[in-house]
Amino acid sequence: MKSRLLHSSGDLIGERYRIARYVGEGGMQEVYLARDLHLHRDVAIKTPKNTSADKRFGRSAVVSARVNHPNVAKTLDYLNDGDAQYLVEEFIDGLDIKKGLLEPFFALDPSLVAKILHHLAKGLAASHRADVIHRDLKPSNVMFVGGPEVHELKITDFGIAKMASEEIDDAVVGGDETMSASKTVVGALPYMAPEVLKPHGSAGMASDIWAVGAMIYELLTGDPPYGRGLGAVGKIQQAEIPERPIRFPGRTQFNPLVNDLADIIVQCLSPSPGDRPSAQELSARCADLCYTVSERRFGECIFVHPSGAYGEIRDEDGNKVFFNNKSVYGPKLTVGTKVCFSCFPGHPNPRAHPVLLLNQEDRS
Known about the structure:
This protein has 364 residues and is of the alpha+beta class. Helix content is 32%, strand content 24%.
């Protein structure tokens, strides 16, 4: 979909930013890659999609600029050019965790999930210290760089969070028909705290914590704690306690970290906002988690012993790698299964740990 304002690469914004290409869109904005001609660097240019968003875009830019942290996308500039408004952010040459992790993978191992949680908590703690509430945290608003080992992670779209919050408020009051028509709301529902779903409900810092808990639950299990779409609303409003996110209890070497993560997640998803940890407390708890994330590579299962206890993977360079089923975070592998794994020295072949399953349609 092309913007109503920018139609091709080469457009010049504010006599400074040269549009390179259209990147995509969110519920409230369109995003472009541009070149800052003054500082000779790539930036992300965001512009509102409709006039209702226009009214609040500038105010939101001022709010987002208050946050300065490595785990938060930096707001660099805000300008008007003709009738249009533009928010300029650092360009993150990566993927959001929805497209880059949730969609390709069956589920993520607890070490990778702990790393993501830790960086999320640090970024959120910085924003809350600046008295900035995101209000629309969800997987598509978290970007990462470096492939499945996640070298960098940044929370984005603090600048439009209030606008998204107002659209959500309107949809909750309007009921199912309004919700069904709003991409912003449908995408946000699994990550909306109980207090936000009440008519005229308010989102505070504790609502951001609830959203983090819901995202981490989904990364660990493959599914949000209360399901997707409108079906999640009733369960969240009823404040049902979700099941502990322990999906593969037979994988005993993962269990200690899974249990630590489950304790954190359940507390983040507490029905009462006052029972949830603050972002600072959450960050401190994450610092005590024992996790490591090594380089990841892709491959395919080429052999499984009849017992199912072990087998072999061939990586993308044609090398054979041994795996034990206890290192697989997911169901048992079968020949032809596409996988992602870390690799460690072994004899006669290297050993894979952990091993993650990919959704087959993503890497055929």
